[in-house]
Write a structure and sequence with these properties.
It contains 10 helices and no strands. It has 264 residues and is mostly helical.
């Protein structure tokens, strides 16, 4: 007579096998911990690195620059801030100030970076890095430029800041790029104005559209959008404003690549 294995025995064996597998995993994990130590576990689970801040100013600036140069800006900022907190009058302090601003900039914290650049400029007005600081102040504004249907203050503030740089240091290493970025930001402002025309056309406020087009041609006669604006203005003045298909008139309205405005 054949015998059958009781159901409870099968369940027991499965449970035992499952426990054995879990036990093996625990043993393996403990072996990794024993072999690699804390640093290995940090790497395994991607724990955040900590700055070694209890060091002299000379070592802090070196470690901060090492982290900064490999893109670890949060870690670099810890070193720079430690210098400013503990060694504010040390020879390393001014560099720590500047690189703290740079670290914030490269982390995309433009408002914070702008404050730090301004403070550096006020404290060290004769420092050889001032042209760079003025350029970075302008770039903090430039990086805030959004789409043409949003706030345009980033463009206007960037243009003003770049012009201040050109007035103060007309032959700095940043002159050519500053001029190109001014031109790109100006084109952005023109595109913003032209995009407003689209709204007036959709709402059939043709007199408002005509006034805005006249403004564009008067203030930005050499802009890249000027020929399109002139053509559209002539249609409105002839009593033939486009009633549909607006998209083709308003394509490509954005912040253009500043490199397209570099001189040969």
């Amino acid at each position: 007579m054949s015998q059958t294995t009781p159901r409870t025995t099968i369940v027991s064996r499965r449970a035992s096998a499952c426990w054995s597998s879990r036990y093996c995993l625990l043993i393996a994990a403990w072996s990794i911990f024993s072999l690699t130590g804390c640093s290995g576990i940090k790497g395994l689970f991607n724990f955040e690195e900590q700055a070694q801040v209890h060091l002299p100013a000379e070592q802090l600036i070196m470690k901060g620059m090492d982290e900064f140069n490999v893109g670890k800006y949060y870690l670099a900022l810890d070193y720079f801030n430690e210098i400013l907190d503990r060694y504010p009058f040390s020879p390393e302090a001014s560099l720590a100030e500047l690189k703290a601003a740079d670290a914030n900039y490269f982390m995309g914290r433009y408002a914070e970076a702008l404050v730090l650049y301004r403070e550096f400029e006020e404290r060290h007005p004769t420092n050889e890095a001032i042209p760079y600081v003025m350029y970075q102040k302008a770039m903090c504004h430039y990086q805030r430029i959004d789409t043409i249907d949003r706030d345009i203050s980033g463009a206007t503030d960037a243009i003003q800041a770049f012009r201040e740089l050109l007035r103060a240091y007309p032959t700095s290493p940043y002159t050519e790029e500053a001029r190109a970025r001014i031109a790109a930001a100006n084109e952005f402002l023109v595109n913003y104005e032209f995009n407003v025309v689209q709204f007036f056309l959709r709402t059939k406020e043709y007199s408002q559209a005509e006034a805005r087009l006249n403004y564009i041609l008067a203030v930005y006669p050499d802009s890249r959008i000027a020929p399109r604006a002139q053509e559209l203005l002539e249609l409105i003045q002839a009593g033939k404003p486009p009633a549909a298909g607006f998209a083709r008139w308003f394509q490509g309205l954005s912040l253009p690549d500043w490199m397209n405005f570099l001189s040969d």
